[in-house]
Amino acid sequence: MAPSGTDAQTVSVADRKLILIVVSLAAFLTPFDISAVNLALPSIGTEFAMDAASLAWVATVYLLTLAIFLVPFGRVADIYGRKRIFTYGAIFFAFTSFLISLSFSSTSIVAFRTLQGFSASLITVTGFAILTSAYPPRERGKVLGIGVAAVYLGLSIGPFLGGLLTQYVGWRSIFYVNVPLGIFIAYVSARKLKVDWAEAKGEPFDFIGSVIYGIALFSLVFGMTQIPALSGLILIILGVAAAVSFVFWELRTSFPVFNVGLFVRNRAFAFSNVAALINYSATFAVTLLLSIYLQSVRGFSPQIAGTILIAQPIVQAAVSPLAGKLSDRIEPQIVASIGMGMTTVGLIPFIFLTPETPIPFVLASLAILGFGFGLFSSPNTNAVMSSVERRFYGLASGTIGTMRTIGQVLSLAIVQLIFALIIGQVVITPESSGLFMQSNQLAFSLFTVLCFVGIFASLARGKVR
After folding, report:
1. Per-residue pLDDT reduced to its tens digit, 252-285
2. Distance CA 365, CA 361 (A)
3. How many Cβ atoms are within 10 Å of 207's Cβ, its own excluded?
4. What share of the chain has pLDDT > 90, as a percent?
5. Residues 67/290/416/345 CA torsion (nearest 10 deg)
6. Can you give the residue ranges of every domain in the chain?
7. What number is the average pLDDT over the span 228-244?
8. Are the beta carbons of 288 and 306 closer than 8 angstroms?
9. Going by CATH, does the domain composed of 1-198 fall within 1.20.1250.20?
10. More confident residue, 420 or 277
11. What is the pLDDT, as a whole number, of residue 426?
12. pLDDT (tens digit, 9 = 90+) per residue, 335-380?
């Protein structure tokens, strides 16, 4: 193994290519699991007699656990080595996937999904940090774009393959697929990658700060999912109090788990992360809303609905590498802001959906949305990773991953709140679709305004080069 903190210039071309392949495969694996499992939820619910609220936890607990551990494990990776943590994550992901395939009750599958979210955080927080460490600045945007494209590819194939496996082999087969892939990633990482990076080696780990951080994030994220219930408000208040305590603690400790000063002193880092939070908050629930619209309002089968919805991630996957490469030549601020603007334009048509809207109109709007998101994400990731010193790569990767996850949960929470206020307990059918269409219009109006505000957050980051 090369010494800790190996410079990108000393990594051979062959090693760089191998690193790109392994990280891209890992970047594909975790979002594939998320999107494929969503198609299996009805089958899981039937087998374990789970109600809607319990079934939702199969998906939510994974994202919640992922969000809680991203930042702490980013710091762990900076101290003990990013390749090492990445390898452990791949092994544990394969193991927890196998455990899920053995689930015997609703409680067991939720518990095993919690462990899987824990293992996914080890992979997610280190992948892009490894790419940033291994490649010189002039090539970063390009390789980060490929990594982001792998994420979108996982999201694209997940619904189709997940539905296929669930229908013909059973829902457990989705998790069988993860086992050999996780083992392969771990093997190549451990045996073939000759370098590791640990610029913060020898520094102590801030355990107390990590616990406070976990309490704050759990309370805030879980509280969002409970709104408008009183328990949700109480949890959010607790989360805010814990977050304030966390900031005070981090400012006083010598080796913080999260360098709060990065948000205070590093404008590019702060606004790039805020832009990511806004973008995911405004876009993540689009698939949920359109899935209900296409199936419950328009009457399409899950297969046809999935085929229509795949238009967005396919365009994202095609655009991301090109956008990342472009951000190596042009300031990420410019490229990402144009992408945020295109995303805003892509959201507007969905405000005016009706039960008779032509499907080509929906497909074109999804394509615009995918183009905008692809144009935003890679340059924004490039901006975050390029705005910090090498010793903070793991932290930066964990932070942007946390912004993404919180944005996803916030997006769902906005939809849940709108549904609770407008629809209530009514089952959505073609006959009772009026309330849903009202909710849909309000949700997309809010998302469009939110994304428009995000343009200014993206522009406010300034230059990173």
Report:
1. 998 998 888 888 888 889 999 999 999 999 998 8
2. 6
3. 10
4. 39
5. 70
6. 1-198, 206-256, 266-465
7. 90
8. no
9. yes
10. 277
11. 60
12. 999 999 999 999 999 999 999 999 999 999 999 999 999 899 889 9
- pLDDT at res. 244: 95
Q: Is the pTM of this model over 0.70?
A: yes
Rounded Cα distance, 222 and 5, in Å: 37
Half-sphere exposure at residue 19, Cβ-oriented, CA atoms within 13 angstroms: 28
Q: Which pLDDT score is estimated for 2?
A: 40
Q: Please check the confidence at residue 430 and state whether its pLDDT lies above 80.
A: no
* Contacts for 209 with CB less than 8 Å, ≥ 6 apart: 246, 249, 250, 253, 256, 257, 258
276 and 332 Cβ atoms separated by less than 8 Å: no
Instruction: Please choose, from the candidates 455, 442, 427, 450, the residue with its C-alpha nearest in 3D space to the C-alpha of residue 350.
Output: 442
Tokens matching residue 239: 């989360």
Tell me which amino acid residue 81 is.
G
Question: 3-class secondary structure for the chain?
Answer: CCCCCCCHHHCCHHHHHHHHHHHHHHHHHHHHHHHHHHHHHHHHHHHHCCCHHHHHHHHHHHHHHHHHHHHHHHHHHHHHCHHHHHHHHHHHHHHHHHHHHCCCCHHHHHHHHHHHHHHHHHHHHHHHHHHHHHCCHHHHHHHHHHHHHHHHHHHHHHHHHHHHHHHHCCCHHHHHHHHHHHHHHHHHHHHCCCCCCCCCCCCCCCHHHHHHHHHHHHHHHHHHHHCCCHHHHHHHHHHHHHHHHHHHHHHHCCCCCCCCHHHHHCHHHHHHHHHHHHHHHHHCCHHHHHHHHHHHHCCCCHHHHHHHHCHHHHHHHHHHHHHHHHCCCCCHHHHHHHHHHHHHHHHHHHHHCCCCCCHHHHHHHHHHHHHHHHHHHHHHHHHHHHCCCHHHHHHHHHHHHHHHHHHHHHHHHHHHHHHHHHCCCCCCCHHHHHHHHHHHHHHHHHHHHHHHHHHHHHHCCCCCC
Residue 452 to residue 460: CA distance in whole angstroms: 13
Q: Give the per-residue pLDDT at 429.
A: 64
Place of tokens 């805030």: 220
Class of domain 266-465: mainly alpha
Q: Are residues 25 and 186 in contact, defined by beta-carbon separation less than 8 angstroms?
A: no
